[in-house]
Write a structure and sequence with these properties.
The complex is a heterodimer of chains A (291) and B (332). By secondary structure, chain A is an all-alpha fold. Chain A contains eleven helices and two strands, in the order ααααββααααααα. Chain A has a two-stranded antiparallel sheet with strand order 1-2. Chain B has helices at 2-21, 28-53, 61-77, 82-106, 109-129, 131-134, 156-179, 181-191, 193-198, 203-229, 239-252, 259-278, 282-296, 301-330, and strands spanning 140-141, 147-148, 151-152, 231-232. Classes of the chains: A mainly alpha (291), B mainly alpha (332). Chain A binds chain B through residues 35, 37, 83, 86-87, 90-95, 97-98, 100-102, 104-105, 108-109, 112, 219, 223, 226-227, 230, 234, 261-262, 264-265, 268-269, 271-272, 275-276, 279, 289, 291, and chain B through 57, 103, 106-111, 114-115, 117-119, 121-122, 125, 128-129, 192, 194-195, 239, 243, 246-247, 250-251, 254, 280-281, 283-284, 286-288, 290-291, 294-295, 298-299.
Amino acid sequence: MSNLLDLLIAGLATGAIYALVAVGFTLLWQTSQTINFAQGEFVMLPAFLMLAAMHVGAPFWLAILLGILLSLILLGLGFKLLLVDPMLRHGVLPLAIATMALAIGLKEAVKQFFSAEASPFPSIIPAGDISILGRTVSLQSIGVLVLAIAVVVALTTLLNRSSIGHQMQAAAQNPTVARIIGVPVERMILLTFLINAFLVAIASLLITPIYLAKFSSGEVLGQAAFIAAIVGGFNQVRGAIAGGLLIGVVDNLAAAYVSTQYRAAVPMILLIAIILFRPQGLMGRAEERTV
Amino acid sequence: MTRSRILSLALGIAVVIALIVIPQGFNRYGLFILSQWAVMSIAAMGLNLTLGYAGQVSLAQGAFVGIGAYAAAIMTTQGYPLIGALPVAIILCFAVGWILGYPALRVQHHYLAFVTLAFSTLAFLVFRNEDWLTKGIYGISNIPRPHVFGFATNRPLPFYYVCLGSLGIVTFMVWWLIRSPWGRAFVALRENPVRALSLGIDTRRYTLMAFAIGSALGGIAGTLYAPLTQYVDPVPFNLSLSLDLLMMVIVGGSGFFFGPFLGAMIAVLLPEWMRDFTGGYYLMFYAAAVILLLIYSPSGILGILDRFLTERRTKTASAMRAVAKAKLETAP
């Protein structure tokens, strides 16, 4: 049974990162009907921005700051102004395809300008083990879990407790009414793009030391985050969090107890089952269909 | 109207003759790329049925190409002729597509996209892990090319004609299908499912049908893909092929009959052509080109043409109205 505890902690740690990425994904969907197929690449890129900063001589902490800042500018502001805004009125599908093309572009850009090889990435969490309940657990897993949960808690507090958070929720749920009661809807939408950019930068910082920085590492991560978002409920932030943690744990348990070959299939089967029996997700609201 | 019909017919014949004559001077690689274009056009045409005509987003078309390719690879290396593998691939893809259509009855839009995405991943895992059937990551090599009417098509040029001929046959069949009552029911389904239902269209059956026929076309493309590359492994049939095919349909112009041909041209030929003068950066330029095109015309390339033609027609009509009005006013 002690093995189970290790698996659970490791699963929760990756799950918490999935949750970060999935939360951003649902925020974009809620406020601007954007399905971002480049979300995985959005997680891949900040690590390379940080690595690039370190290559020109910046110390690690400065590289992190620069990476987050550049991520806010490129993946938040730039993404919204250059890609989403001109395409939004054309509907969901062309925009989704454009983000697929963006994913190809980001991958290729990193491959060309940086490296096609995987690069190591320093961890902000010191290596080592600590003992919990008589078991030694890697500090890395615990640290990732704690940091990711801290970010998520801070975000949900912002959304549920602050005035800005309430305005954001109003803008997401009913833009027209929100506008009437004086919510600056456009600014709130921009804010969600910036939050997404911040979340992917943090996720990048946490996950890259574990899986190395590679131009193609966004594919798997993006897919896991999508599944997490859908399993939990496409239109609910807390759903995305629950979905992320669930997928992380299920994935780890499947690798240990089902088969390593089909581990990727287990979250998929979970996904199909949930879509068939509860299409709105575990915690989602059903969306009304209009005639 | 008749003049424009004659014009488009002439254009069509010119394109077909060009596709037959010009590649005779191509080298091995050029012929391979063109054959690939023909194969991908078939698969994209299938997806266009599902997406463009029946309005169901599928991210599994690449998996059906994979099923077709593996059916062809396994059967032809066992000594069966390719023409024997074709019905197996069609029936298999049709059946799986039909089953995959069931979630489409329950969920819509993005949810459906994710069900098909899940299927895509599952299919990839089966290709990779069921060694006894698919030889796993090592893949199946030495896939023979077929004999057509007694002619061997081992060389690139004859096999290109096999691909082109298949594309022609499939094009004609789909053209016929879309003009049939079935095709009209598909369009009704896309435009407004609830209204279609109220008009007495059995939306359940037609949704499943659109999925199944679209998938079967993916299977046909797969049976050509296997002898084209003569080697089949799981990697080409991962999710990115499904995404590429979806991109082809949207970029060409979803819901336009010739959209998939142009989309496949963009996705298969454009990167290769760009590679010549942009070196390693070609995929970046390609991505930028796709994004710019979609920003400019979200209904794809044929959307631009369609808009242009509609504008011209409106202009001619209003000019004629003005003339008529002027005549009325100057009349005594």
